[in-house]
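In keeping with the milestone schedule agreed at the kick-off meeting, the structural modelling team has produced records for the first pair of proteins. Each record is given below as a sequence line and a structure-token line. The laboratory manager (R.T.) confirmed that both were archived under the project's standard naming scheme.
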Amino acid sequence: MHVVVVGAGVIGAACAEALSAAGATVTVVDRSGPAAGTTGAGEGNVLVSDKEPGPELELAQASRRQLPELLARLADELGAEQADVEWQPKGGLVVATTDSGPLHDFAARQRAAGVLAEEITPERAFELEPNLTREITGAVLYPEDGQVQPVLLATTLLTAVRQRGGRLLSGVTATGVTKNALVTDSGTIPCDHVVNACGPWAGDFATRAGAPIPVLPRRGLILVTTPVADLVRHKVYDADYVGAVASGEADLQTSTVVESTPAGTVLIGSSRQRVGFDDTIQVDVLRELARKAIRLFPLLAKVNVMRAYGGFRPYLPDHLPVIGPDPRVPGLWHATGHEGAGIGLAVATGRLLAELMTGKEPHVDPKPFRVDRQGLAA
């Protein structure tokens, strides 16, 4: 079986890896190169803390369980250095600076769904994060939250695909699908299946393939500080982040997210805004992100910003990704619409798609992610 995956971001890479591990011959096509789009503009979040109980949380829990196992297998296959994706199972800390009731209610619903969510006192939060503002009114510790370097994760997955005999074609634009082939600007690639893993551009490719889906870009910006020692130890965010993630509003929304990297830099987010593919870096948005971050970590006021960057998340109106075959075009499959959760959902997404394509028993229920779910494929 020959499968062509369109898109070399983390979702496409995870699908390609899972398919090649299942014995398929895989070609990955990308108009730019590995992790050149949404993946390269992400923070690397692997989260269960920000998801309401339901299908997305179940996919996130499965992915979180599988990621360390997959990395261990890739280390055996590729070597430890080649498979190093800066995986940090450091945990997440969600804090409230106003009424903490909604935060604790949300945590209780998550615990009922099997998430480790430990309600802690502000004093305990200060022990975990000594530089945290003393204005917090409540906190929940999520030990399962983690972080990877997203570009390294995508490229490591693609390295495994290539080592197993697969191909990566960079600078090749997919323009359509015909029976048993992908059409590109460099010619036709015969194949049995095509996987649409184009992220925010998946809607455009799906339309060209004859099976439109309503994927829209949702813009986000991130600030990066100069290296600073031991300022932030966990992924820390304000409780309003959950509401911003779940919101469908087009207007600008910002919520405080602060975390460090192995290099010592601090990443500050997050913003969400539907502005099409306008990639302008908006200074007013950066100011808002900085202001809110300083409120959580006052010492950040003395730290210099090194750079800012942004990207587009693949947004679907019902906030669930599409994973699986498209009944309108035989041989066409989708793996897109993960919005800002793609890094954390990638491993389970790739495995689920490979299971469906090869006829194996799915490890999570695929029905909520079908492209023909009510109202989506219109």
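The second protein of the pair:
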Amino acid sequence: MSDFGGVNPGQPGTAGPTRANPSISGTIRQVGGQLGEFSLLRRLGKGGMAEVWLAEQTTLKRNVALKLLRSELMEDESYVKRFQTEAKAAAGLNHPNIVQVYTVGCEKGQHFIVQEYVHGQTLKALLQKRGPLDLPLALMIMRQVAAALQAAGERGIVHRDIKPENIMLTKKGEVKVADFGLAQLQGGERLHLTQEGVTMGTPLYMSPEQVSGHKLDQRSDIYSFGITCYHMFAGVPPFQGENAVSVAVKHLHEAPPAISEVRPDLPPAVCQMIDKMIAKQPDKRYSDAGVIVNDVRKLAKAIRTGESVDELSDETTGPVKQFPIRRPGLVLPALCILVFLLTAGMGWQLRTRVPPLNPNALGDVSVFKTAREQYVHAMFAIDDEDAFKAVIAWFDLPDDKIWRRRANEQLALLYLKDRRREADARAQLEKLRSFEPGDRQLAAEALVGEAYLDAVANNKNPARKTLQSHGEEFNQYLTGSWKQLAQEVRQMTSEQPPQRPMRMP
């Protein structure tokens, strides 16, 4: 018996890897196919190394993700041996932010990995739908991914393929990194630009030393993580090109556009963190993901409380003397909390808070204990109107205000993108104005939202006039998806240059 939960890595009676039988393998890879104690339910995806299936482990009555190694790869015994070695290393990682590998084995000549099934979506899917993320949500994702990298680094495991596709998000706000230790199976440590299965998704996040084929350590993962963070804040990766070669060369020799210029609303400390993670030279990056975890926690606390951060970790290149809060209104919730505690008493504040629930009011929305958890759930649910309404309806303490504000902003964006809901969009934009009268950011968001509705309705003159009259406000106060909305309005209202008449020969 092997130490992978009782599944043998080879067929009974064999000393090593077994060759695949294509006819048998074909009968397995279908709905209802049986692989030992695993019954295949539906295919989830296909990559360069394996097909991924949702399966039921019949003995334990649980769903798992079953990775079936591609038939042609199973003909290479050296490859199969590496497959088993790397899967065993990944199975040794047990951390809440890492997709758990349960077992690895071989049945009927089919090599496979059994891992935790994560019900949710990838960070890539979230970014495609939401665009640039706001700071609190991005920091929450960053902290959990960094914690996963810290756990792997302590075991000497390098992921080699950190990117949004390999970061899973659950509806409970949990973040899990997939495929630890397995990425090198798709091509080793050097980028093979002609290898089957290598796509643009791979070089977009590769470290310079990985592109060059040098020896890797966890600092390579930190670079890829930094590029992923850049993508979260900017909405696109820093380097793009027509092919893998052009992207790889940029990682080696080009500096990306400064994140502070792409997202001027970000605190300097956040920009400094990202710049350090994506330094070209490994010795100029963070040497340990645990330091990133600590810095992210400091920054997240500053966002919640309105405090300043005197300096980040000792590893940073030049300490950050002050962490400026660009929106002074964020300090108000902290002051309100203090007054609330003094007047109502600690016992009231520390009670277990379960939001009131009318089962028929907001559909089938899961209930969470805090506004923050409810908001994160709504963000991960994707276009769930009731989930955002739950944040607004169920949480009314002073420290919940920031999350109700963000839920109102997300509802406005949701309605704006649905042309059938113009009336709802205009009503929600008015709610933004009245949520915190005098807040210039909310006022700017309401204005650009109205300009967008005008542009969509082909009323270009009012939309163009709004852009001209409030351009400075938009540049100063709009961030993330709202900034993208302003760019869309500019594109829709731009005057097309007159075409020159064709000359007759």
